[in-house]
Amino acid sequence: MKITIIGTGYVGLVTGACLAELGNDVFCLDVDQKKIDLLNSGGIPIHEPGLEEIVARNRAAGRLRFSTDVAASVAHGTLQFIAVGTPPDEDGSADLQYVLAAARNIGRHMKEFKVIVDKSTVPVGTADRVAAAIREELAEREAKVDFSVVSNPEFLKEGAAVEDFMRPDRIVIGHDDSHGGQRARDLMKLLYAPFNRNHERTYWMDVRSAEFTKYAANAMLATRISFMNELANLADRVGADIEAVRQGIGSDPRIGYSFLYAGAGYGGSCFPKDVQALERTARQYDQELLILRAVEAVNDRQKHILGRKVVARFGEDLTGKHFAVWGLAFKPNTDDMREAPSRVLLRELIERGATVAVHDPVAMHEAKRVLELDLGTAKLARVRFTDAPMDALDDAEALLIVTEWKAFRSPDFEEIKERLKHPVILDGRNLYEPDLMTGVGIEYHGIGRSVLTRK
Ligand code: UDX
User: Fold this and answer.
1) 240-454: what CATH class?
2) Residue 128 among known ligand-binding residues
3) Contact, 332 vs 406, CB < 8 A?
4) In angstroms, what is the span from residue 258 Cα to ligand 1's centroid?
5) Which residues are known catalytic residues?
6) What ipTM, to 2 d.p.?
7) Which residue's CA is the nearest one to ligand 1's atom 26?
8) CA–CA separation, 417 vs 398, rounded Å?
9) In CATH, what is the architecture of 2-205?
10) Which pathway does the database say it acts in (predicted)?
């Protein structure tokens, strides 16, 4: 099928590359000439396992191309995917200017039936606004062309996006009942047929329900995390082990095991933004989502948990003290620093007078850029970036772990002990077993794992 993807950000690029991999003819559009040049010269703007190979293979096969030519992009695809950014406005609502600009471009240039697929995470009701924008453009040039807007939210996890796209748990598609809506449904069915071979994974629904599903899913997952973080903090007080509790409750199939890991708080581009946007939508309809307000507040507080543990152990004034930090990205397998808990921790350590040595397997470059904005050049000079994790440890009071990269799971604990000034690990991701740490002679503080008998 002929497909256009508008926006070659994270979602657009993964969607375009994976659809090309299935044999579709994909045209990717972006307004950013530099990004298009990079992609056309074989480069890739994000770190995502497996993506580079898929992009290279499909470019070589002529099934995937990148351009800034708007008219050509509209002419190309019967399916026009809108996958542009929806950054939060000052008030937390999703900013739809890029989505609506993409819709207007389609309306301005389209000559025959098109299906417009909303892939970006957009508030309930956006498909209607997209349709209205297209209708206005058509009216402007007195053109009569049929089209249909469908909602097809993505459920891609950064670091596993290719895998998530290729093996989806579910495909959610919202369409309307008009003649165009039925045509759109048939085309979407054809597009996703390769994913439904073994069993049907597509959930067909009305457009508003599909838009809502995306927010509901992310809000539910964020809620689970904040709930576990709150329980973990209490477990620390009462002397219980949140890991044992996680398994104890997760074994109930109504609860399940996943997304119950306590830690240093959630970050990334989706959960913080989507929780806020859903709260904002509710307010527009005179409803307050009390649970989500708490989810957000708990998460904001949880991002300070490692800082609080440092203060509890080393005092309020950290002047002259040096710390090692492993992990900067908001989660493993990505270089994404958006809303990363490491940013909150580093700011706190630096403001209390400490110096820091940091290591992340892939996010160092992005971290330098972001931390310069957060801290300013003078304070950034107090952060040393080391190429090897062990090199961050020398003369540090303690090792602080913020991201659960695989490479941190089985380090040489003897070397850690030798290189640190004190054998202390404050672990924001519960990577190690507290009893084993006691066994190797390391003072270990996880999140919610201070069982009384260990003390
Ligand atoms: C999320 C959704 O999972 C995905 O379906 C949606 O399309 C986009 O948002 P992503 O933001 O890439 O994906 O990351 P995810 O793996 O969901 O993790 C989000 C954050 O929650 C990370 O900061 C992670 O460290 C944290 N997390 C996750 C926990 O603290 N505990 C958990 O148990 C799981």
Assistant:
1) alpha beta
2) no
3) yes
4) 11
5) 270
6) 0.92
7) 266
8) 10
9) 3-Layer(aba) Sandwich (3.40)
10) Nucleotide-sugar biosynthesis; UDP-alpha-D-glucuronate biosynthesis; UDP-alpha-D-glucuronate from UDP-alpha-D-glucose: step 1/1
